[in-house]
Amino acid sequence: MALYRLIYVSQAVAGLEYPDLVKILEKSELNNKKVGITGMLSFGDSMFLQVLEGSRRVISQTYNRILLDPRHVNAELIDFSEIEHRDFGAWSMKVVQLGNQAGIRDIILKYSSSETFSPISMTGKQSLNFLRELTELYQRGTTS
After folding, report:
1. Phi-psi region for residue 74, left (φ > 0), alpha (ψ -120 to 50) or beta?
2. Residue 15 — left, alpha, or beta (φ > 0 → left; ψ -120 to 50 → alpha)?
3. Does pLDDT of 127 surpass 90?
4. Entry's SUPFAM superfamilies (predicted)?
5. What does the alpha-carbon distance between residue 138 and residue 133 come to, in Å, rounded to a whole number?
6. What is the pLDDT of residues 42-64, one digit of tens each?
7. How many domains are contained in the chain?
8. What is the pTM (predicted TM-score) of this model?
9. d(CA 43, CA 28)
10. Would the pLDDT of 144 be above 60?
11. Taking phi first (over 0 means left), then psi (-120 to 50 degrees means alpha), and beta for anything else, what does residue 47 get?
């Protein structure tokens, strides 16, 4: 079975708060585990950057459902490509809220023109590398 990766960016609606992120995580973990999707959702400065990995059909169906979610607007596909292996296989979904931690801000600045999280300006490769580095930072436990 071929594997695919989809990366998209979107803007949170006004008033979105941490409890909303928890709800997104809980529902995503449950749904994704059932269909073999892995990935990560990062959120900061009112922007989402998400990666999904799995079969083409299931990713397409999931992305179409995500587009209907009223908690975000202006979704834009950054990358959708065939991959050799999963980079986010440890998580059916992980939500990382980006704050002012030094390590996270360093990664944001590495791939952006400022310390403001603006994934809309990132290329597919930059987005993927950003998410990979964020994952490594999180797994090392140095995001606090």
Report:
1. left
2. left
3. yes
4. Acylphosphatase/BLUF domain-like
5. 9
6. 888 899 999 999 999 999 999 99
7. 1
8. 0.89
9. 15
10. no
11. beta
pLDDT digits 0-9 by tens, 97-118: 787 777 888 899 899 888 888 8
What CATH number should be reported for the domain holding residue 48? Answer: 3.30.70.100
What is the domain range of residue 83? 3-140
**Cα distance between residue 54 and residue 66, in whole Å:** 15
Is residue 104 within 8 Å of 134, Cβ to Cβ?
A: yes
State the average pLDDT over residues 89-93. Answer: 74
CA dist 118 and 67 (Å) reads 19
